[in-house]
Amino acid sequence: MTSSVPVDLIRLEDAEGNRCVVRVTGRFQPGVLTGHDILRADVLVSASFVDARLEVYLSPHDLDDWQRDLSGIAPGRQARIGGDRGLSLTLYAHDDGWLSVTVHDPDRLTADLGIRPEDDWADRHQQYLRQVRRTWPSEVVSTGTGVYEWSPERGR
Question: What are 38-89's pLDDT values in tens digits?
């Protein structure tokens, strides 16, 4: 399934106007085995001191790590996405319900935000992740080191 409609993977905002959104916009290289399953996304960060739009590329491994971290998020723990090849976003959960959100793009920006999301934010983000995976399912398999082929499930 291919979609031209962006899907939010992360959407955190609060009443004070602090906001961090990771919006998946499509495949990096549709139809190219080595880039087909890499997803392009915009990272939108805004607060009283910053208003930025950055780009990040997410692999299926990044999404798996995000799911694992998000499943274990609790006060004193963090969830992280990206970072191996550039931009990283880290959420640190505090005891009082606040999240520290760090956006680090080594070439452009590092920003720390405090956001107080709604109580069910982690469950909603699991739903967002499922929607991203439904919209852009993984369609490439590795059959050896540096060897890729289309999944038999592609296009179903």
Answer: 999 999 999 999 999 999 999 999 999 999 999 999 999 999 998 777 899 9
Cβ neighbors of 92 (< 8 A, separation 6 or more) are 77, 78, 99, 100, 101, 102
Cα–Cα–Cα angle for 68, 20, 104, nearest 5°? Answer: 75
**Residue 1: what pLDDT?**
46
Contact 21, 11 (CB under 8 A): yes
pTM of the predicted model as reported, rounded to 2 decimal places: 0.92
What is the number of alpha carbons within 13 Å of residue 53 lying toward its C-beta? 4
Q: Which two tokens stand for residue 125?
A: 């983000």
Torsion of CA 9, 143, 68, 127, to 10 degrees: 40
